[in-house]
Design brief:
Zincin-like, 3 strands, alpha+beta
């Protein structure tokens, strides 16, 4: 993500979605539904941030490619990192 920034906000999200990511110039904006429970918001953040790491704009609009193997690898790396940090903090 060299040269890009990510802004994360909690706010109402349209429809039944838990979150979404958009791109404007060099900035990604990750929106997480503030109507969801905390655990769902954390999972959604990991999901949407993985899109940022996978350079989401390459696949925008193609659901299968948006959630392909490159995205899955980023998602799993983030999930493992968060889980390990939580374990470390909780002793």
């Amino acid at each position: 993500m060299k040269g890009r920034s990510v802004r994360i906000i909690t706010c109402p999200v349209a429809g039944d979605d838990d979150g979404e990511v958009s791109i404007l110039g060099t900035e990604y904006t990750v929106k997480i539904s503030n109507a969801r429970p905390f655990a769902v918001r954390v999972d959604t953040l990991i999901h949407e941030y993985a899109h940022c790491l996978d350079k989401f704009e390459r696949h925008r609009g193609d659901h299968d490619k948006e959630h392909g193997s490159a995205w899955g690898e980023k998602y799993s790396q983030l999930y493992i990192f968060i889980r390990n940090e939580a374990d470390r903090l909780n002793g």
